[in-house]
């Protein structure tokens, strides 16, 4: 029994190999890009629009509202990154209903790569909001003694982000395989439904946590800059 799609290797040369995770990741990216192109090529501003445009508009509004509810007042700045994370993980997990498909999110390599994207995006958005000095000062809050703890917090939450998604998807796949081997005619529909539900929940949690981390970084910088501005004005 395979634990990860990384173990299915199609081609190998030295330390370089082409495994199932890489293949399914690229197929998903191509499908998402083609789907986005097909849906958005004939967008209409009239009330009567296509069914796919309605679905797309609902999805965009839902993502924008969720980002705003977390605390980011200008959600349009973050929609491309957070929306892409959510859609990739959600589609990757929803396709578990397809026979013999193994989601790339069941690979620790994929989840670590997604978590690293969040790890890089947090300081990028933080620096864009308040400059590099303002962002670096947030690591010294409430005082300089907290510097190592703030750094450890950044690293540990990135690791937790990767492990949480990998653990849930991988364990769900293993349980489904065991149950299907015991009763192949009873469990397929139930396990497929549970797998889709779990996959959507995990995609939502990952996107929301990424939004929370970005909101915390931009808020800390903004609060610090506002305090400095008040000190200058009253000084």
- State the share of residues found in helices, binned by percent: over 70%
* Largest sheet: spatial strand order: 1-2
H/E element order = EEHHHHHH
- What is the molecular shape? globular
Q: Which structural category fits the helices and strands? A: mainly alpha
Q: Measured on Cα atoms, how large is the radius of gyration? A: 21 Å
Helix tally equals 6
Largest sheet geometry: 2 strands, antiparallel
Distance between the termini: 69 Å
Q: Quote the average pLDDT.
A: 83
Number of strands: 2
Strand content is: under 5%
Give the low-confidence spans.
none
Pfam families: ATP-synt_A
Function: Key component of the proton channel; it plays a direct role in the translocation of protons across the membrane.
Transmembrane segments: 20-39, 78-101, 107-128, 165-187, 193-216
Subcellular location: Cell membrane; Membrane
Question: Top keywords for this entry?
Answer:
235 residues; mainly alpha; two-stranded antiparallel ribbon; 2 strands; 72% helix
Q: How would you describe what is shown here?
A:
This protein is mainly alpha-helical and about 240 residues long. It contains six helices and two strands. The protein has helices spanning about 20-40, 50-70, 80-95, 110-135, 145-180, 190-235, and strands at about 10-15, 15-20. The protein is globular.
List the helices and strands and how they pair.
Elements: E1 9-13, E2 16-19, H1 20-40, H2 51-70, H3 79-94, H4 108-137, H5 147-182, H6 188-234
What can be said about this structure in brief?
With 235 residues, the protein is mainly α.
């Amino acid at each position: 029994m395979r634990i990860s799609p990384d173990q299915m290797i199609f081609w190998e040369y030295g330390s370089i190999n082409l495994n199932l995770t890489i293949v399914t990741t690229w197929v998903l990216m191509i499908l998402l890009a083609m789907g986005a192109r097909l849906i958005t090529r004939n967008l209409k501003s009239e009330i009567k629009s296509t069914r796919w445009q309605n679905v797309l508009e609902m999805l965009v509004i839902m993502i924008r509202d969720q980002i705003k509810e977390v605390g980011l007042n200008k959600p349009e700045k973050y929609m491309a990154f957070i929306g892409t994370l959510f859609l990739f993980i959600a589609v990757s997990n929803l396709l578990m209903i397809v026979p013999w498909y193994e989601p790339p999110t069941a690979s620790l390599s994929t989840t670590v790569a997604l978590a690293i994207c969040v790890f890089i995006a947090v300081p990028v958005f933080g620096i864009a909001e308040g400059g590099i000095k303002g962002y670096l000062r947030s690591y010294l809050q409430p005082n300089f003694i907290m510097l190592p703890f703030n750094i450890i917090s950044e690293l540990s939450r990135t690791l937790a982000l990767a492990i949480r998604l990998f653990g849930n998807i991988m364990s769900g796949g293993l349980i489904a395989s065991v149950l299907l081997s015991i009763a192949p005619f009873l469990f397929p529909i139930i396990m497929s439904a549970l797998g889709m539900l779990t996959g959507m929940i995990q995609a939502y949690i990952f996107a929301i946590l990424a939004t929370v981390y970005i909101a915390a970084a931009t808020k800390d910088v903004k609060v610090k800059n506002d305090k400095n501005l008040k000190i200058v004005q009253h000084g």
